[in-house]
Amino acid sequence: MEKYKRNLIRNIRDIAKVDRPREKLSAKGPEALSNLELLVVLVGCGIKGKDVFAIANEIASVMDRDFYSLSIDKLKEINGIGETKASQIMAAIEISRRFIVQEGVRIKDADDVLPIVSELRNKRQEYFLTLTLDGMHRLIERRTVFIGTLNQTLIHPREIFVDAISDRAAAIIFVHNHPDNDSSPSKEDILVTSRLLKVAEIVGIEVLDHIIITKDKIFSFRNKGLLDSKI
Prior knowledge:
By secondary structure, the protein is α+β, with helices and mostly antiparallel strands. The chain contains 8 helices and 5 strands.
């Protein structure tokens, strides 16, 4: 994300009104703004001794370092960003991500899944997600089904497949993370997968994969020959 030339502009009041980010957005549309200018619009205003561009520039630096681990707490570490503003920024990012992942993303292999669920790499709890797909293996919906230690008694097939049926999905992918950074499936992971495969066969929805995400690795049941289904 580009740095703002603060040696040229010291304060937003020094910019001609027509070129200020908010006015520029209104007149020319969001595509006319730089990344930093878009952040300025989100932040809104500065604080005493620190203008809005300085705050936006710090946010840009945090995003550059590790966008996928961005959180409300990390944003609040920036002087000038409180709980409300941090929440607004995270909400804007999340709603954008949700619309983007639904724009005809086609899943060909496990590597195509990773960008859709990449934030799982840094989660400290286990998350179990489902991705429903149409007959062309295009993403229909991503859902978080369960948070906590994976256990077959807690993963209810009816909750998973009722949504998949509602989506008129032809296929489904299961994804969960291992916070301990061990990508190997546990005995419980294998039991849960086996149970879900049996239900999938009954309802006529193909299980394309079950993927385990860690900070550094991914494990694909399909790639390891643990599923009969093929993408």
